[in-house]
Write a structure and sequence with these properties.
The complex is a heterodimer.
Chain A: H1 9-17, H2 22-72, E1 94-95, E2 101-113, H3 121-131, H4 137-145, E3 151-157, H5 159-168, E4 173-182, H6 190-193, E5 195-201, E6 206-212, H7 213-217, H8 219-223, E7 232-233, H9 238-254, E8 259-266, E9 272-278, E10 309-310, H10 316-326, E11 334-336, E12 341-343, E13 346-348, E14 357-359, H11 360-366, H12 369-379, H13 381-390, H14 417-424, E15 430-431, H15 433-444, H16 469-485, E16 499-508, E17 515-528, E18 535-542, H17 560-574
Chain B: H1 2-59, H2 62-71, H3 73-76
The chains are: A alpha+beta, B mainly alpha.
Chain lengths: 594, 115
């Protein structure tokens, strides 16, 4: 760079000759130089600012553009990651204790229409009515030619139907993929499974939500994508359930009952092996809930869990067990059974008069209301209430289906001494058969509390003790005697030593005001084998009547007991229970000397 | 002289590296495409397995088996399991020789190999 000198000699000499101050020239030159330096510095700064502005503009454009692309593009599956193995289906399968499928998913299609794209709506409507006879032709044409832009025609169609619709060749008829819930066993265990339907729906997918039973209770668990590949294992056994439903159905028809319920439960764990309620329904095609009439006439009604009834004499077992536990009586104590028994205005009478007194064992074997009531008076209301609470009769059943929360027992408002007496033989307290099964399991397993459950789980802690082993053992002996020499003589199944207690309760009239004379609920609560109980079986028949004799018989001994015996005969071998010779009563062996 | 040789070598190295980088890129894309193809195949196989499982459960439903047992009673004579059918170990005959192995299995999980 060529710098101009501050004091150019030519101009200084010239200035000196004219008598001017040469320093002025130098100052002027310094000023010019400073101006030039300032301009250069400004240009450079401006250039840098421009570069930075361009840089930031590009950076922000890039970020913004990328965001727009991410927001607009369809999400794609990662191509390089390891197989997303776990997500198989929208909803986990439900299987029985041996892994056999009770509910699974099935890929199918839904059919919808976009009338704007339709070429020949009338032809399409004709053909659709041929394929789906339940569609209304006039309505389809109205929808296709109207102002609608979109309509669903069918929620689920089979592959054959899809092909038939495809063959119409109408571009305005479209299919959307659907995952549907399939219950391959039809009506088997329908009340446990409940059913499922579609929740929010889109063209490409739809939610499958449980609407009843265990599908609704475990809806969150079944829909959890993290656990969709792990099936939910129930405690039910498919073949046992099928055998029980078949026998129960036959028994219901023979006994002319309008409904029936059966529960088979493991006594140690409380796992329900089979639970049936008849009449039943097909969960693949769940009927609509009834809007009028008695809810328990609907096949949707679960008699085993939702049906709270006064179950009658099956409750005597609990009164006697408590009296034994409290030490008030022993099995041979004689109890006054003079019938009728007068209590204030009320009379308690037996089915027939059993004489002035019976031993406690005989009270159970012959099912004496009077004898049980006298025992209950000694127990008292407060203690009876506590005991029934420990057996689980005061709350809704904890079973894992949504209907169970509605099974709260009906308790007397005022637990008076009279209530104590009626409850001791099963009147004045309405509970579901599931409550009864859990309470009988407690006696059968040696006195430990049982929580009924539908989940199969090997590890479970034993419940709190309610009665002692000795009491439970005495009760098992009494229940065995009910079958071997008492009211349930039809319940004998060779090799399985059935024990139990019958209960025949008059049905209360729907609008109050007493009980029907000719409508009963017959219940048989049984345990088998009685010397080492493994299972509890409850059979309840609604309004049975046995007509083979001269006059109609309605007692449980003639109706529920034979059905229960046949169920035991059928299901015990299925569960791998060998018939055994009952161990003889040790009390009969006596040392003698002479 | 030395400098121009350096230039030529550098240019050759750039060409070589570019060739290598492109080749690796194409191989990666090929591997990704194959992985995706396999994923799709796995997904399809799983979907087919679900259908087969559902069908198996449907064909083995107790109602149908009961009907089949009744239809074929003359040939099979099957009855529900009864308590007296439990036997003791010394009632069982010595086992017969095993059946011949299956030599022509049909793979139903892969549609391409189905006959």
């Amino acid at each position: 760079m060529i710098r101009t000198p501050l004091r150019p000699l030519a101009r200084i000499l010239e200035a000196r000759s004219r008598g001017e101050n040469p320093d002025a020239i130098e100052r002027e030159n310094i000023r010019l130089r400073h101006e030039e330096m300032r301009d250069r510095a400004r240009r450079r700064a401006e250039g840098r600012l421009l570069v930075l502005a361009v840089f930031f503009f590009c950076a922000f454009s890039l970020v913004g553009g990328r965001m727009a692309v991410l927001a607009q593009s369809e999400p794609g599956e990662p191509r390089t990651s390891v197989a997303g193995a776990s997500i198989l289906a929208q909803r986990a399968d439900i299987v029985d204790r041996q892994g056999r499928i009770l509910a699974t998913n099935f890929d199918t299609h839904s059919l919808y229409a976009q009338p704007e794209d339709m070429i020949d709506p009338e032809h399409a409507a004709d053909k659709l009515v041929e394929i789906f006879p339940d569609l209304d032709r006039a309505r389809l044409i109205r929808d296709f030619t109207g102002t609608r832009k979109f309509l669903w025609i069918k929620k689920k169609i089979s592959p054959e139907q899809q092909q038939a619709v495809h063959d119409i060749g109408e571009p305005g008829l479209l299919f959307g993929p659907r995952e549907m819930r399939l219950y391959p066993n039809g009506s088997l265990a329908a009340h446990v499974l409940g059913g499922a339907s579609f929740g929010r729906e889109g063209v490409h997918a739809a939610e499958v939500v449980g609407v009843a039973g265990i599908e609704k209770f475990f809806d969150e668990r079944l829909r959890d994508p993290a656990r969709a590949h792990q099936p939910l294992t129930l405690s039910l056994d498919l073949s046992v359930q099928a055998a029980m439903e078949r026998v129960l159905h036959g028994g219901m028809k023979i006994m002319n009952a309008k409904g029936a319920a059966g529960i088979l439960m493991e006594v140690d764990t409380g796992e329900v092996v089979a639970v049936a309620s008849l009449p039943d329904f097909d969960p693949n095609d769940r009927p609509a809930a009834p809007t009028e009439g008695n809810p328990d006439d609907s096949p949707l009604f679960n008699r085993a869990v939702q049906g709270v009834y006064e179950l009658g004499s099956v409750f005597k077992v609990f009164s006697v067990a408590q009296a034994l536990e409290l030490g008030l009586v022993n099995p041979d104590t004689m109890v006054n059974t003079q019938s009728p028994m007068q209590w204030g205005k009320f009379r308690i009478r037996d089915f027939r008069n059993y004489g002035p007194e019976l031993s406690v064992t005989k009270v159970i074997v012959k099912s004496s209301n009077v004898g049980t009531a006298r025992i209950a008076v000694d127990i008292g209301a407060a203690r009876q209430r506590d005991f029934l609470d420990q057996l689980g009769f005061m709350q809704a059943s904890p079973l894992e289906i949504t209907e169970a929360s509605g099974s709260a027992p009906l308790l007397p408002k005022n637990w008076s001494e009279l209530s104590t007496m009626t409850i001791s033989y099963g009147h004045g307290l309405s509970t579901s058969p599931m409550h009864l099964a859990a309470a009988y399991a407690t006696i059968a397993n040696g006195g430990r509390q049982v929580t009924p459950t539908l989940l199969h789980d090997a590890s479970r802690t034993p419940g709190a003790r309610v009665i002692s082993e000795t009491t439970a053992d005495a009760m098992r002996h009494m229940m065995r005697k009910v079958v071997s020499e008492g009211t349930a003589s039809f319940g004998e199944v060779p090799g399985y030593a059935v024990g139990g207690k019958t209960g025949t309760a008059d049905k209360p009239k729907a609008r109050g005001g007493g009980y029907y004379d000719d409508k009963v609920i017959a219940t048989f609560a049984s345990i088998f084998p009685a010397h080492d109980p493994k299972y509890v079986l409850i059979v309840t028949l609604d309004e049975p009547v046995e007509t083979s004799g001269d006059e109609p018989r309605r007692t449980a001994g003639w109706t529920a007991v034979p059905v229960a015996a046949e169920i035991i005969r059928r299901v015990a071998p299925l569960m791998g229970l060998r018939p055994e010779i009952e161990p003889a009563d040790l009390a009969a062996i006596r040392r003698t000397s002479n | 002289m030395m400098r121009s040789l350096l230039y030529v070598l550098t240019a050759l190295a750039v060409i070589g590296l570019a060739f290598w980088a492109y080749r690796e890129n194409y191989r990666t894309q090929e591997a990704q495409a194959e992985a995706q193809h396999l994923q799709n195949a796995i997904g399809d196989a799983r979907a087919r397995l679900r259908v087969l499982n559902a069908e198996w459960a449907y064909l083995n439903r107790p109602d149908r088996l009961m009907d089949l047992v009744e239809l074929n009673y003359d040939k099979l004579g099957l009855l529900p399991l009864q308590p007296y059918q439990f036997g003791r170990i010394d009632q069982v005959a010595f086992p017969a020789p095993p059946e011949l192995p299956i030599t022509n299995p049909v793979d139903v999980s892969n549609p391409e190999q189905q006959p």
